Amino acid sequence: MLFCAPLALLYLTSLCSATPLNRRLIHLYPRQNGTADGTGVARAGGVLNADAAAEANHRDDTATRAFSGVSVKAADGTCLFVDPTAGDFRQNLIPVQMKACDGSANEQFDIITAGKHIDQAGGMLVVSTQTQGCLNFDPRRAANDQVIIFSCGGRADGEGEATDSQIFSFTAGQKSQPLALKSDATACLVPASGKLGSAGCSGASGQAFTIG
Predict the structure, then answer these.
(1) How far apart are CA 140 and CA 172, in angstroms?
(2) E strands of the chain, at which residues?
């Protein structure tokens, strides 16, 4: 039997108040803030921390949304797909997959053209409606893991302001356009073996995505 006495340590306080299942999860994946909610995740932490995820990916209610809850469809007919359990305990580092378009919540995005995390005119953030994380392209990451969903603003804890790795060029009134970084128009996102990858921008119609 677990003996729960008053203790100063947060770890043991959480352990004492948890259900038997969550005791095992907290023991395996202790948190500095918040507790595991039992949902397994593929990357760091192993178990979702709902409190940390909410802090890292909060909705910007001040933002201007050109589109809300829409699909982003590639020329090959597949759609951007986000699996919230494929990232870490904050719902960061989620690889962006390309799957058959089905209208599910995993395939819904907001296109933000002004707000807390975008400081460039003619740019957009592609934000997962489900997780509130931003589409992020970082060529410094491993070749098959450069396009991910990450906290808008570029800081894992959600305290970032704006980062070039999340701001893509946007032409108002044009539903079909490439996903090209505004800071580097030579790099375009493209479907690649079931994921969203990158290639040099060619201007070809095969690199265009339909929004909405």
Answers:
(1) 30
(2) 36-40, 47-49, 64-70, 72-74, 78-82, 94-100, 109-114, 123-128, 134-137, 147-150, 168-169, 176-178, 180-181, 184-192, 195-200, 208-211
Find the angle CA(153)-CA(82)-CA(188) to the nearest 5 degrees.
65
Burial class (CB in 10 A: 0-12, 13-18, 19+), 100: exposed
Under the banding of pLDDT at 50, 70 and 90, the label for residue 24 is very low
Model pTM? 0.81
Q: Rounded mean pLDDT of 60-64?
A: 97
Contact between 47 and 41 (Cβ < 8 Å): yes
Residue with tokens 């590639």: 74
